[in-house]
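User: quick one, fold this
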Amino acid sequence: MSKRVHKVFSEVAHQYELVNHALTFGLDIPWRRRAAQVAASGGGTLWLEVCSGTGEMAVNLKKLAASETKIVVSDFSMAMVSKASEKGELDTATISLADSQQLPFPDNTFDLVVISFATRNITLTRTKLKMFLCEFYRVLKPGGRFINLETSQPSSTPIRIALHLYTKQVVKLVGRIISGSKTGYAYLAHTISRFINAEELSEILYESGFSSVNYIKMTFGVVAIHRAVK
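Assistant:
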């Protein structure tokens, strides 16, 4: 991860969950819950969440995991990892400080890899995104699943325009007021409007080696859940 992105997430960690809830009108909560349900439906005994942030998705996964399933939570930001470690629900999870571009895990380790609302912040270029996806592919077992929850580009032009106006005018302002970071939510708003649509992300997943790629659009296509198999 770049130093710029690391600085952004270090600055916003203390109010990250509150800002997300405010800016999505609380919709990020059911979005994560639905993605966790999709992720957990395939079972497995070892799950990894990358770019976990404050651990909200990991908590959802923990609620759905079987008693024998172990969950590993990883993020590159110490500030985010510290917030995740404070959650009592994750007291049995392994929390790891790790860069998602070079994960400290052997090949063919996990039954499940999950990422939520972080893919667009990893990189906005197709080539670099494939590099990260190939790393996620590497640590998955054959037959393992990759679940990606991320903002998307609505197919409806009026809704897409409204989304871009909202991120430009509201996300930066409200994010700055609540978090206190002048640059953090300006950057995050920028990545929302620049990120690819669900169809293109599916193509990149196939190009990265995954198979059986499908996706679910939610809230008029503002977000999408992708599921892919190694």
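User: anything notable?
Assistant: The mean pLDDT is 90.
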